């Protein structure tokens, strides 16, 4: 089963003249990023207008740690004295830089492309909007943000927001995603946005590895209302979003009880994973308010670090 895809742009006719290349690059850059960023800006502004300001913790400038330099680190951040004692380059980090860093893992797998009704957003669209709006809010509070799929360190500013938007526009080929916290800074914070319908062991492993390095965070499950209610009857063919998995039944109603039990078990497992690591867990449905979802995420990051 495929879903219609739409694109938007201006029909300007044949491009001629010295600015042709510039115009083409500008149009390529402008789609599809501005709609996501504009909606995220509006959502973030609505939350702030509601009086939900962020409580800032004290910042210190004490030395925290050395870490290997990564692509994109400015040359001025490299500690050349420490680097001179080894074969690699090292960055000298201060305590507040780690404490004010937030890593976002957004599931870009095919499963997140599901929507049971054309009036509802895809799970991936809701996740991208929340991740983008949360990035805007955090940066307005002076915090650094990174998108895990980019493999770059947390940064702040308009360029970083554009990178995050570009990263959120990508998709992955597999049915289900798996988080990877290997590049997360110690003592930072993390937000995982996913339907978490794939192997739960990968989630447990990533959260445990992050927790061992002092990272606190949030597991935020995003589900379509049909995935919660299982409204199917009679002969039904269930296929994964990639078509790799397929199951046909003549009596879909007979599967409902077992399905709902397994979904409840999955939520309990995710809740236990979060509790054991000192993280928070919640479920959001795509037919519910995106503003309330953003507010929950925003306030969840206020918890103990």
From TrEMBL:
This is DUF58 domain-containing protein. Pfam families: DUF58 (PF01882). InterPro entries: DUF58. Residues 1-23 are annotated as: Disordered. Residues 1-19 have a biased composition (Polar residues). PANTHER family: BLL2464 PROTEIN. Residues 65-259 form the DUF58 domain.
């Amino acid at each position: 089963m495929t879903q219609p895809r739409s694109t938007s742009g201006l029909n300007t006719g044949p491009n001629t003249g010295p600015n042709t290349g510039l115009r083409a690059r500008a149009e390529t850059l402008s789609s599809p990023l501005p709609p996501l960023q504009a909606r995220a800006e509006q959502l973030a502004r609505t939350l702030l207008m509601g009086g939900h300001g962020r409580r800032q913790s004290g910042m210190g400038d004490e030395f925290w740690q050395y870490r290997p330099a990564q692509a994109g680190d400015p040359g001025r951040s490299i500690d050349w004295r420490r680097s001179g004692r080894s074969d690699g380059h090292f960055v000298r980090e201060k305590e507040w830089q780690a404490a004010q860093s937030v890593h976002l893992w957004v599931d870009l797998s095919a499963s997140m492309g599901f929507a049971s009704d054309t009036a509802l957003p895809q799970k991936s669209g809701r996740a991208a909007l929340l991740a983008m709006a949360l990035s805007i809010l955090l940066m307005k509070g002076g915090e650094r943000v990174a998108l895990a799929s980019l493999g770059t360190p947390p940064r702040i500013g308009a360029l970083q927001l554009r990178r995050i938007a570009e990263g959120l526009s990508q998709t992955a080929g597999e049915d289900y995603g798996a988080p990877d916290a290997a590049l997360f800074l110690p003592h930072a914070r993390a937000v995982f946005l996913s339907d978490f319908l794939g192997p739960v062991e990968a989630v447990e492993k990533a959260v445990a590895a992050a927790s061992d390095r002092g990272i606190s965070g949030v597991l935020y499950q995003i589900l379509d209302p049909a995935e919660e209610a299982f409204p199917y009857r009679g002969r039904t063919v269930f296929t994964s979003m990639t078509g790799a998995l397929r199951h046909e039944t003549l009596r879909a109603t007979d599967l409902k009880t077992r399905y709902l039990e397994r979904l409840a078990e999955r939520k309990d497992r995710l809740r236990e994973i979060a509790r054991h690591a000192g993280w928070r867990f919640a479920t959001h449905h795509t037919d519910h308010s995106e503003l309330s979802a953003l507010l929950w995420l925003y306030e969840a990051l206020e918890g103990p670090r």
